[in-house]
Amino acid sequence: MGTALATLEGREGQVGSVGELSSELACGKPSLAGSVSQRACVFCGSRVVLYPVADAIHLVHGPVGCAAYTWDIRGSVSSGPQLHRLSFSTDLRERDVVFGGEKKLHAALSTLIEEHGPKAAFVYSTCIVGIIGDDVAAVCRRVSAERGIPVIPVQSEGFKGTKKDGYRAACDALLSLVGTGAESCVPEYRGDPAVAGSPFSINILGEFNLAGEAWIIRRYYEEMGVRVQSILTGDGRIDEIRNAHRARLDVVQCSGSMNYLAKSIEGKYGIPRLQVSYFGLEDVAAALYAVAEFFAEEPEIMRRAERLVARETAKALAEIEPLKRDLTGKKAAVYVGGAFKARSLVKALRLLGVSTVLVGSQTGDKDDYGALAAICDPDTIIVDDSNPAELSRFIKLTGAEVFIGGVKERPIAHKLGLGFCDHNHERKIPLAGFEGMVNFAREVHCSTMSPVWSLFHGR
Predict the structure, then answer these.
(1) Range 328-427: architecture per CATH
(2) What CATH number matches the domain at 183-311, 3.20.20.140, 3.40.50.1950, 1.20.120.530, 3.40.50.1980?
(3) Is residue 11 very low, low, confident or very high in pLDDT (cuts 50, 70, 90)?
(4) The model's pTM
(5) Which residue pairs from 137-146 have beta carbons closer than 8 angstroms and sit at least 24 positions apart in sequence?
């Protein structure tokens, strides 16, 4: 590896450039101690997946700081219950560390269930709980029997691995619910009544309804004549998750967080899965066509999909074209949670005339990075599990003019004096679907072309 891409000792294989990678990018490794990784912990990973389930209690068993750190961490919105917006904690303290926190957990669960009447409760184990050895699962079983609702332990002690292990803990919790819905208790369909009885049904996995994106995607499928059985977990409802095994197809949007669950459902219930992305015109069209192809027994679904894509693409391109004229030739850096989303962003930026000169993710695997390298321009730097020092140095090296990332990447962009586009989970503007691509183009344009950068030293 050249001097320009030199990094911390022990991370050499996790950084490379397209055209110069002599082997597969190393990934899936624990973060290097002292590297100040951009990754979150196991507990945070589980919370971002389960948090959008709106009619469940989410109780963090641990110090209050863990609950505060993850409170309202997603811009997930609900069309009904707002329980997910509340942050509950057992607030373990020194005395609880010595004598145990099981009694406190039982009391907190009992009180919360009595006061709020949830459909279920998720109990998140934190680092301190793993150290003191509280039997969280036993307390959950006891409260479930007493209160008559599912009370589900989430084994998410932060020190157990990486954010990806938190995804798996959340998927295990969801899997314990899938298939438990009785035939006599199928919930009323919450979408378009015109497709309520459609035999063409899907689950959407890994869509978290940030700024209402799940509603946009649901509307597309319903216009095609496809019923959305459940969304895991955006605007999620416990009864819909319990009946997710009744769908004919699982459509996986966030592969890093939900592939494990999709594979488990396929193995247990025989429901096939498709991996898709709803970011960028090309990928959202491909996602709709893929579902239409799966239901090829009804050709009208494909015809509706074609009409929808043609109509929405024409509208989006008309709005994007003036922005593209200003953006053509600009350079972007991308660092996000999942590598599959990074691929969509590379393609979306290319549509805007913007080249990606640096791209990476927190949780990508070898296949993800291989596919990413295949669509990137020569010399594009690819990084796995990066840190602020690396990202700052590579941005300077490549001359990137806009940074697409999340809350932890924003300060890097601001310190370096370049535009920033938030594509993570706390945003309030939908970026998925055809209209989301227009929003993304506007945000990249506003940030990149802002006159403030002309006042920044050295620009």
Answers:
(1) 3-Layer(aba) Sandwich (3.40)
(2) 3.40.50.1980
(3) low
(4) 0.89
(5) 138/102, 139/102, 139/105, 139/106, 139/109, 140/109, 142/106, 143/106, 143/109, 143/110, 143/113, 146/110
